[in-house]
Amino acid sequence: MESALDHQTARALLEWQHELGVTDAIGDAPIDRYELPDAAPWLHKKQAPASAKAVTPAPDQEEDPVEVAEDAARRAETLEGLRAAMGAFELCELKKGARNLVFCDGVAGARVMIIGEAPGRDEDREGRPFVGRAGQLLDRMLAAVNLSREASVYITNVLPWRPPQNRDPKPEEVAMMQPFLRRHVELAAPDFIVLMGNISCQAVLGRRGITRLRGNWAEAYGRPVLPMCHPAYLLRQPIAKREAWADLLSLQAKLKGAS
Fold first, then answer.
1. How far, in Å, are 116, 195, 235, 248 from residue 215 at the CA level?
2. Which of 165, 155, 171, 163 is nearest to 103 (CA)?
3. Of 16, 112, 152, 228, which is least packed with CB atoms within 10 Å of its CB?
4. CA dist., res. 257 & res. 192, Å (int)
């Protein structure tokens, strides 16, 4: 059927419809849908007809990171097995941005276990905890009381992966890694634990405020625990080194008294 509109008018109308969002033609003749019979009255009611099946939302299938971590940690029977379990844990977003898993350093089975906070840039690059300037200071502190990571100390962190820009770990990140930390302590079996920094105290003792906690012995994982200031803090606040020295002497006394 030929259109009664001239070419220019028809083109103008087509462009106008296109601007309104019309993209497809579904018939040759226009349809006044206001004049259509109400063939499906149920569409205007709150309930669908009996033939329409209700759609049941799919259950939430997301895994609980803490439960997954607890199961993986429980299955680890050795420190190497625990390292492998942590390396296979995919539910912590920190892993995606880290270069290396920072698991431990020092002597497994040592009487003293140091738990730091999280890897920094140097630790992430080397895959070992407490390296760089903070690690060098820690080594000098330990040597002052006849301890060393080569012979008498075992070292790990609350988190094995570096947070972006060295930010503080989020509570959910700490929570999902706690089962691994607890199992780490069980397998390493130290006599004493040293918690270095606020994040370590929060993860193990459930408390923050390292300047108040430091030097006060507590108990966690069935072992004596000594909070201390992190070596990185001591580099920023050298005046606190005097208190750190007192804490080291307290640790030395404990070791001698329990020997």
1. 16, 10, 18, 9
2. 155
3. 16
4. 12
Cα 72 from Cα 68, distance rounded (Å): 6
Task: Say if residues 71 and 64 touch (Cβ distance below 8 Å).
Answer: no
Task: For 173, list phi and psi in degrees, rounded to 5.
Answer: -70, -45
Edge-to-edge strands, sheet with 192-196: 105-106, 153-157, 112-116, 192-196, 223-228, 218-220
Q: Which of 127, 82, 128 is nearest to 100 (CA)?
A: 127
Pair 148, 139: CB distance under 8 Å: yes
Query: How many whole angstroms from its chain centre is CA 155?
Result: 20
**Token pair 């070791």: residue:** 255
Q: First-to-last CA distance in the chain?
A: 106
Q: What's the pLDDT tens digit per position in 147-201?
A: 999 999 999 999 999 999 999 999 999 999 999 999 999 999 999 999 999 999 9
**pTM, full prediction:** 0.76
Q: Which two tokens stand for residue 189?
A: 């079996």
Q: How far is CA 226 from the centre of its chain?
A: 25
Q: Is 159 helix (H, G, I), strand (E, B) or coil?
A: coil
CA-nearest of 167, 190, 166 to 115 is 190
